[in-house]
Structure formats: structure tokens, C-alpha cells
Amino acid sequence: MNSDFKILVVDDEQKILDVVKAYLEKENYEVTTALDGEGALNIFTKDAFHLVILDLMLPKITGEDVCHKIRAISSVPIIMLTAKADEDERIEGISIGADDYITKPFSVRELVVRVRALLRRSYKDTIPLADVLTFNNGDLEVDIKKLLVKKQGKTVSLTTNEFKVLIVLITNPGQVFSREQLVDKAFGIDYEGFDRTIDTYIKNIRQKIEDNHKDPKYITTIYGMGYKFIPNSNEVK
Fold this sequence. Notes:
237 residues; alpha/beta; Rossmann fold; Arc Repressor Mutant, subunit A; five-stranded parallel sheet; four-stranded antiparallel sheet; 8 helices; 11 strands; globular
């Protein structure tokens, strides 16, 4: 089963690449490596990957810029490797498109566990619904199986985690979810992030699916309680 998954690992230290590649291949994943941002993007645009492990400190093109460019064309799960450990910097990593992060120096065994968990969350089909959900006469279209979102007919790129949060909301229209409930329903008990990142995911989703993210019609805030999804923009908030 694991052999079906292809992983791109990007780091400027060959020793790290060799060790991570060896551990992942023991798990029967197919692994490709790159030593710099430019090489990573060249490889990514020529092949299909199920997950990217991306160091932030890269030559030629930074990890942040690589992440931005990948996010412009793909919702592939991304794990960032970073020496930055404080909460604000982790939130910034999530804001630019990362689905998970791990700080250096890190345990390769822990990284493998994170990879396994993120792949399981990202590709396990557990939603018994119609393949495509549409709202407001096609203004918003969500293809659940293809992990694809369209706004007014144009594809918008969501991270895997953003997509999972959106799915929880759109499949429970009108229901108010606290941050903790969204974490539980979107990611499950093995999620190792923190509930405040939900605010970041919501902000990013709004910027991509709302006509005006400062005056959202789809995902509304219920102050002191959480968030809810309104499928009809004419509904009174």
C-alpha cells in the first residue's frame, strides 16, 4: 500500500536527505530528493507526488517561496522542516501553506510517524457524500474525491488541512463548531497541532472562496462560540 505513495524530500544537507530517504524507503515509500529550491520545483512540476517534506532554509529559492509556488498549483500535503520553534513562526509556516511542521534537530522516526499520519488523513476516503457539492448556483464548487475547489468556475488551491476544515463545515451547514470541535472532526485525535491554528485555516479559506474575505458570506464567525458554514449567501447571519 505504501508503495503507492511518492514523496519529495527537499533539504540542502545531503546527509539529512540520505537518512530520511533510507527511513522512508524502509516504509516502502517511493522517495525523490532535491538539494535546493530550484531543483525541487523542477522535479515537482515534472512528476506527481503525494507529499512534500520541505526545509525552509534552501539555496537558490527559499523554502517559503517553494511552498508558495507549490500551493499555486497543488494541494499536496507539505511537512516543513524548520529551526524556528516559537508559536508565531509555526503559525506563519501554516499560513503560507504547510500542513505540518517539525523542528530541527528532529527524530527521523518521529518524521516517519508524521508522514504516515498526514498521508492517512489526506488520502483516506471517509466521507460518504456526493462527489461534487455546489453552492449558490455554482458560485462555489467542491469536488471531494479530487480535493478540488472552484470559485466562479476558477480553481483555487487549498492546503490539505484547509480542505479538511472546509469539508467539515460544508457537510454540516448551519452547525456551529468550536475550534476544538473542528480540530477533532477534521484531523482526529492524532493531530499534534494546536487549536488556534484553526483561525489561520479559516482566514486562508475565506481569502480563497469569499467575494470579500473581510465580509464573509460562506464561513461566518459566531463570536464566543466558533464558526459555521452558510450554504446560501442570502441567509441572514
